[in-house]
Amino acid sequence: MPASGATTGTTADTTASTTPVHDDRPRVVLDSSLDGHQKQGVSGGTWIALILGALILVLLLIFILQNNVPADFAYLGFEFSLPLGVAMLFAAIAGVLVAALLGSIRLLKLGRRVRKLEAERESIKRALR
């Protein structure tokens, strides 16, 4: 952070620039483009994810139909028989659920941090006015 009274650059390169004022306090110019919500633009990514998901689903159905051989399983004292493809489907679903749980926790933490930073930015803006 620059010393008080120093110029850091133009508003185009930084989010805030300081210029000296008559009372030797720097005047801060805020970048108003940070105040609004960001444009999401996720429709293209959503379509790609939908097409990839459909392709994976078709490949998974082919795999299940081709691996219809019964397999014996023992889990926590329970013994059962399932077609191999179905058992692998259950394992894949369990893996996706674990990954979704971990990803959700991370997103919640990031969301909390963003809200705290936005509140801090608002308090800084109020203090500078």
TrEMBL record:
<feature type="compositionally biased region" description="Low complexity">
    <location>
        <begin position="1"/>
        <end position="19"/>
    </location>
</feature>
<dbReference type="GO" id="GO:0005886">
    <property type="term" value="C:plasma membrane"/>
</dbReference>
<keyword id="KW-0812">Transmembrane</keyword>
<keyword id="KW-0472">Membrane</keyword>
<feature type="region of interest" description="Disordered">
    <location>
        <begin position="1"/>
        <end position="25"/>
    </location>
</feature>
<keyword id="KW-1133">Transmembrane helix</keyword>
<feature type="transmembrane region" description="Helical">
    <location>
        <begin position="86"/>
        <end position="108"/>
    </location>
</feature>
<dbReference type="InterPro" id="IPR010445">
    <property type="entry name" value="LapA_dom"/>
</dbReference>
<keyword id="KW-1003">Cell membrane</keyword>
<dbReference type="Pfam" id="PF06305">
    <property type="entry name" value="LapA_dom"/>
</dbReference>
<protein>
    <submittedName>
        <fullName>DUF1049 domain-containing protein</fullName>
    </submittedName>
</protein>
<feature type="transmembrane region" description="Helical">
    <location>
        <begin position="47"/>
        <end position="66"/>
    </location>
</feature>
<feature type="domain" description="Lipopolysaccharide assembly protein A">
    <location>
        <begin position="66"/>
        <end position="123"/>
    </location>
</feature>
